[in-house]
Structures are given as C-alpha cells and as structure tokens.
Amino acid sequence: MSDFHHDWVRASVTWACEQSAGPVLDVGAGDGFGLSVAQETGRYAVGIDQEPVAPSGSVILRWEMERLYHLPDVLPIPWGLIIFNHSLEHALNYRAALQGAQHILSPGGAVFVAVPSPESQGWELRDNTHVTLFTAEFLAHGLAACGFTVTEQRLVEQHPLQPELWAIGRKP
User: What is the phi-psi region of residue 55: left when phi exceeds 0, alpha when psi lies from -120 to 50, beta otherwise?
Assistant: First the structure.
C-alpha cells in the first residue's frame, strides 16, 4: 500500500474517531490498516469484509455490508462509530447497508462515510466494482433517508486528482 494511501486512511479514520465515542466497526476493513488506526486512538475496533485479511491483533469477520442489520445476532456490541471508508460505493444496496448501520448503532452514535467524489480524475471512477457514484447531495439524501442527521460533510482534496467526499451522520 502506498504512503499516500496510508496517510489518507490515517487522516480519515482519525478524524472519524474524533467525531464519536465507543466501539468502532470498520465496514470493508480490507487489510485492517483502518482498524489499526482506530485502535491507536484507544478504541475497541472490529472490521467486516467480504474477503478479510486480519493483521496481527485485529479482528475482521467475513460479512457482507448489506447484512449489517443482522450483525447483532453474531456480535451484540453497542457500536459508537461505524466507518464506511471507500466501501459504500461497492454495495449492491447502499441503503440496506446504511439502514443496517442505523439499526446497530447506539443512540447518538455516528456513521462515517468516505467515497470518491465525482470530480475525481483518478482510478476510483474507472473502478468497475463501484456500483454507486455519490455526489454530496446524493450522499446527504441517502443518509437522511436512512434516519441519520448529517452533521458534517466536506470535500477533501488530499490528492489533487482524487478528491473524496466525507460525511458524518448521527443516529438520534
């Protein structure tokens, strides 16, 4: 993984952890780097991924994000923060993933979403595994339609060719 990618994941996960308290669920945890960052902030963190690769000291379960609603059956934890760091755009049904997050978050908990921006000129928009392209308005509407109050949204340009959208939605 490139230094740029590590810097970007570190910045986004650290920022997300500053927005809410409690255990962290990383949806689409990949190689577990985001989990390591969450753990560095002092949080208990677990990841889910369709193809998990757990680094030492991390827990990543094989789970599909569209089935988040059923995660308490397996892992009954009152999540304080659920992170979708460049994973929600891959969901076949992103609303099912967000509704599942709404179901398993503790009251006042937050969901953090980072997705490629439509302004991106980088590899993200040519990735044929991306099912949904989010504009800022579409992302805010999707969060609100699933019961979240959008408390922060920003365009982040950590790399000039790959801007991304970040949003925090809170569960009432």
Answer: beta
